[in-house]
Design brief:
Elements lengths: L11 E7 L3 E8 L4 E8 L6 H19 L6 E8 L2 E3 L4 E4 L12 H8 L3 E5 H12 L8 E6 L3 E7 L2 E3 L29 H5 L1 H13 L5 H5 L9 H9 L3 H25 L3 E5 L7 H14 L9 E4 L6 H24 L25
Length: 363
């Protein structure tokens, strides 16, 4: 356990982002500044328990790099892909990792650091980061999607992150877009991510190449089609390659359908698009915008800004820090209500500027 409470003034938190490829940890102050960070390879095939051990190592190194001790840290927040019983700190299933069912994530972290520690799905944590310090600042109603291996989602409603009864809120990648579309790994047919995530984008390019279309994409990988990536397709589209432009147009079309659905469902002020694929830029955002404007009518497309994420790879660790700050603030409020003073009156909780404070929605 910690020997003393953090010093007065700015509070610091450890944010941990356990990804399927890399694990990152950072010490973050309550202004969203990263004071020290570290990373480890996820080695997902070795299992989630081993990944938690590497996350602890990364957090220890990040703390060392920040020049602080654990006594100066108020809490820790972690983002982990998959479904969880977060209040217990246990995963139900994480598709990125081998042997991930029922793995304790928070108990070993608490044993090492002695800190109040919290966890949520990785995209929910990134949503917190973007809402507090990124593209979603100032919006009381925000949806975030991440485009990568799959499509993840998070939703801020009335200024609060929503997770749902079984923490399945905003599993947007598995809403059906085309009932006759390709099969998804979840078992459904025509899921959004089966039509617009990484493998779908690559499959569109490969299909065109195998049908004899001439494209720089094939030449750039010397016709080793398994080496094609969305980033490569995006660069080719920027250079005017016809096949690459077609692939990005079709992908943007399906993304636009899903985003139009989300605008009708959540009525957000802002929809933030993150993840590596979102870096394709205008070749992706232009067909998205056109499709949304053509399909979002009852809740008009004009009511929602569609914007790229701002925090990039830092969204996970900054969001983890925001999660820790908000949960500690919530606990403080609950303890204040439950513990009356001598006069049997509860005192108001002082609101400090920083991660746990609420912002007014943008006009």
């Amino acid at each position: 356990m910690r020997e003393e409470e953090p010093a007065a003034g700015a509070r610091r938190y450890i944010g941990v982002d356990i990804g399927g490829t890399n694990i990152r940890a950072g010490v973050v102050d309550d202004g969203g500044r990263i004071l020290g960070e570290a990373r480890r390879p996820a080695l997902a095939e070795a299992g989630l328990r081993a990944a938690v051990g590497r996350a602890i190592e990364a957090a220890e190194e990040a703390l060392e790099n920040s020049g602080l001790t654990v006594a100066a840290v108020a809490g820790l927040g972690a983002g982990v892909p998959g479904a969880h019983r977060s209040s217990e700190g246990i995963t139900i299933y994480s598709p990125n990792f081998a042997d991930s069912r029922g793995v304790p994530v928070l108990p070993p972290i608490r044993d090492v650091f002695g800190l109040p520690s919290f966890m949520l799905n990785d995209v929910a944590v990134q949503t917190l980061g973007e809402h507090r310090f990124g593209a979603g600042q100032g919006y009381a109603h925000m949806v975030m999607i991440t485009l990568g291996t799959g499509i993840g989602g998070g939703a801020i409603i009335d200024g609060e992150l929503r997770v749902g009864y079984t923490e399945g809120f905003a599993e947007v990648g598995h809403m059906t877009i085309d009932p006759d579309g390709p099969f998804c790994e979840c078992g459904n047919q025509g899921c959004w991510e089966a039509l617009a995530a990484r493998d779908a984008i690559v499959r569109r390019a490969v299909t065109r190449i195998q049908h004899g279309r001439q494209t720089a994409i094939a030449e750039m990988v010397d016709y080793r089609l398994g080496s094609i990536t969305p980033a490569l397709i995006g660069r080719s589209a920027d250079q005017g390659d016809e096949v690459a432009i077609e692939v990005m147009e079709e992908t943007g079309y399906y993304l636009g359908i899903g985003i139009a659905n989300l605008i009708q469902l959540y009525n957000p002020q802002a929809l933030v698009i993150g993840g590596g694929i979102a870096q394709a830029g205008r070749q992706l955002f232009e067909p998205i915008t056109r499709t949304v404007r053509a399909r979002a009518h009852m809740v008009p497309a004009s009511t929602c800004r569609i914007v790229p994420a701002q925090l990039g790879d830092d969204a996970g660790i900054i969001g983890g820090a925001v999660l820790a700050a908000q949960e500690l603030s919530r606990q403080q409020r609950e303890e204040t209500v439950e513990a009356p003073t001598r006069d049997e009156q509860t005192q108001p909780v002082e609101t400090r500027p920083g991660m746990a404070s609420e912002e007014e929605p943008a006009s």
